[in-house]
Design goal:
Blueprint (H helix, E strand, L loop, with lengths): L4 E4 L2 E4 H24 L4 H22 L7 H5 L8 H18 L4 H26 L10 E3 L4 E2 L1 H8 L3 E6 L4 H16 L4 E7 L3 H11 L6 E4 L3 H6 L6 E5 L5 E6 L4 H9 L3
Helix pairs in contact: 1-5, 2-4
Amino acid sequence: MLQQSIAIGPMGFSLHQLIIGLAFLLALLAGALIGQRHRVSVSDTLFTVLFVAIIAARLVFVARYWGEYEGVLDRLDIRDGGFDIVGGLVAALGYAAWALWRSPRQRIPLSGALLVGGLTWGLIAGGSLLIEQQSRPLPDVALTTRDGAPTTLAQLAEQQQQPMVVNLWASWCPPCIREMPVFEDAQQAEQDITFVFVNQGESAQQIEAFMNQHAFSLENVWQDPNNALGQATGAHAMPTTLYYNAEGQLVNTHFGELSRATLTQGLERLR
């Protein structure tokens, strides 16, 4: 649920990103209200806490998957969504503790702001995680192969009897195009995992032209002309990648572009 996406015009956001944004805005509001009473501003400190969290989360993730990146620019490219939440939280709390110790005047408003933001994020994200732990099987959606044969994800899962990665994509989506070579390599290397690429809303002719144009060699490229799978899974922006275990239960979702590092992280949960 946290990685379900929402499209706002040409941009897409995951629910988790929106929750973090809401928690930060409420923290700013609480800090401003409490700080007004104590005649001290904590907004700059809160922005620094957020900045430290983002930088640390990225650095920890890159350190964990260092060998999956090809160069410095790839490691700096945050479009793959590679962040280590625990690392970011530890760094943010460490900086917040140092700020509270350094500036006694900020202690009350900053503590109040952090408490409001933390509770907002924890309660909403925690509740969503509890819901995600409930059974979420493969959606029963009618799809079509490139040969025009009707099929479903459940049918393929029954045949393969192994974990499945389902990528929702479209030919007009630049991040989808950029991540295709990563999936192409993974499909050839990971023989114990089934990869399925479900096109959203385009015709068979458009899919065929796209594959020929980019010379992609992918198996299980399917058609979903009515975006039924996206609606069933809450993926309203692309690309979105769904990870199902061998029992056909959803265990992870990644919204946005994947790199080799973030794909490796996702596959770890399937083993």
